[in-house]
Structure formats: C-alpha cells, structure tokens
C-alpha cells in the first residue's frame, strides 16, 4: 500500500479521537444513560473486591428519582466490565490518593420539566478544557474511548476481509463508525456497553478470517467474555455456532474443525457452569431472565412496534444525554437513509464480487 494511502487511514482514527475528546470535555459527569448506577457497581469492586450486587436498592416513585438513578439498579448485569473498571480505579487511587466514591451534584429540578437537558446541577466551568471530575472517573472514560477504538479498527479489518479488492471501502467503513454521533457520544461514557461491544466486534473480526479452524476457540473465548460483560451479548454464541456449521459443511478437511468445535463447546460449558454454580451470578442471571421475560400488554399492536422503530431510529443517532436531548427528526431519518442506501449498494457490489470460497464465507458470516 502506498504511503499516501496509508496516511489516509489515520484520518478516521484522528476523527474518532477528536470527537470523543470533545464529548469528554463537553459532557459533565453523570449525563449519560445509567452512568451513576454503573459507578455504584464499579465502586463495589474498588472498595470491597466483590461481584457487584444491587446495593443500594433503588427507591423512588419515578425512574429519574435520585434514589433510583444513583443506586445499584444495574449491578445485576454480568460483572466483567465492573471488574475491569474497578481494578483500574484501584490503580488510579493508589497513585493519586483520590477517594473511590464520587458524590454526584444535586439533582436538577428543571430536568423533570424539560427546562434543562442536564440531570444534575453542575457548576459553570472556568475554561472549555476544564474537567470537573476526579481522575478516577476521567481514566475510566479514557479506557472506554480506547475500547471504542476497537470498533473503528474492527470496521477496517472486517471490511478488508469481506471485500479486499474494493478500493477505499474499508476507509469508508472506518469513517462511518468514527463519525457516528451516538456511538462517539457513548464512547466516553462509563458504561458496560463499551467492553461488551468491543469484545463482540472482536468475535466478528476473528470469524471473517476464514480457513483457520483454531480461530473458533479464540472467537468462543471472546464471546464468553462478552457475555460476562453483558448477558444480551449471548447472540455472539449464536453467531459463532452458525459460522462454524456453515464453514464445516463446506470443508473437505473437517478433522481440525471438529477439534476446534469440541474446544469451543468446552468453553461454553465452562461459562454455563460459572453462571449457574456461582451464587451471585446465578441470582443475576435469574434477575435478567425475569426482566427480559416481561411482556407489555400492547406488544401485539402495530402502534407499539411503530413506537419501538421510531425510538430505535432516534436512539441510534439523534438522542443524547439521558436520551432526552433530541436533534431534529429530519437529521435522524436522513442519516439512516444514507446508511440504508450505502448498505444496499455495498450488498449489491459484494454479491457481484464473489471470487473465492473464503470471501463468500466471510461475507456470509
């Protein structure tokens, strides 16, 4: 690859760093979905070296009550991210002597009435580049930004694997990810999605490297870690399984695939044993099952799913803060229209360039 072209690939990386850093300076602590509650879980690891539990219990008659948003409400999530962030905090605390606990500012009464986009009452900043939070929180944000970079680099790797001859497709993919407003906004948030998404991207990136049976063991390991970060990442187990079945079905030498399959099955069995035999994790799993099994009475109506579609479109681009800061609908729908058009064009071009079995399998995966 010529040097000028290599330098082009630094542009989406620089774009991501600049945009995520701007959000880092602009967005005050606590102004991202569930961030205060995630911090309660992290502090349990930092202070007590334990698997987080729902402590303190959420209270309050409305979901935005201070006793609810600053509680252990989300601590029933799988704990891997909280261990990563908690032990990171321990290192920072040992260096800076900053207390592990962060006390959020008073709630902003204007938030509930829509007069203010901020959940908390923040003091004015002296300068744009001032960060009004302890180093123990800022380091966690930088850690999240680095995890977000995995998605940007993963876009390059995956695109190169599924269409290595299509000029600049990988550069376009990287730029779309690096400039996706909602993704970049969440990239500096303290949230378990940062680790779960990075691991899931890693699963896909490994699977598209077709022809290497041993990669299924690595993909399974990353999938298990993603599930231990957030249980909804269980879909990665289905992706690994389907990719394995499709690839083995078309393979002439299945011996090494079978060995890799048995090893992968063993890893998933180990994950299941951990979740079922560890009492705290088992209770979290039961809580997740109860929460996910709840069905609203109007879920069978067209209007309900129309609202779900609208909220999905908005939250994928046009909602910030606690999903209460909206940009005009026309921008959200224009963005998604551009995404859909580019997907259609990409699929059409991809189907016309099926040169080898490896490329076909990579695109199928």
Q: What is the H-and-E element order?
A: HHHHHHHHHHHHHHHEEHH
- Largest beta sheet, briefly? 2 strands, antiparallel
Q: Mean of the pLDDT scores?
A: 87
Uncertain ranges: none
Strand content is: under 5%
Rg of Cα set: 22 Å
Structural class given helices, strands, pairing?
mainly alpha
- End-to-end C-alpha gap: 27 Å
- Helix fraction, binned, reads 55-70%
Shape label: globular
**What's the number of helices?**
17
The strand line-up of the biggest sheet is 1-2
Query: What is the count of β-strands?
Result: 2
Overall description:
This protein is mostly helical. Strands 1-2 form a two-stranded antiparallel ribbon. Helix 3 packs across helix 5. The chain is globular, with a radius of gyration of 22 Å. The model has no long low-confidence stretch (mean pLDDT 87).
Q: Which key terms come to mind for this protein?
A:
365 residues, mainly alpha, 2 strands, 65% helix
Quick summary:
This protein is mainly alpha-helical. The chain has 17 helices and 2 strands.
Strand and helix layout:
Blueprint lengths: L2 H6 L1 H17 L8 H14 L17 H4 L10 H17 L12 H5 L21 H28 L6 H10 L2 H7 L5 H15 L7 H15 L5 H15 L5 H23 L1 H15 L8 H14 L3 E2 L4 E2 L2 H23 L5 H8 L1
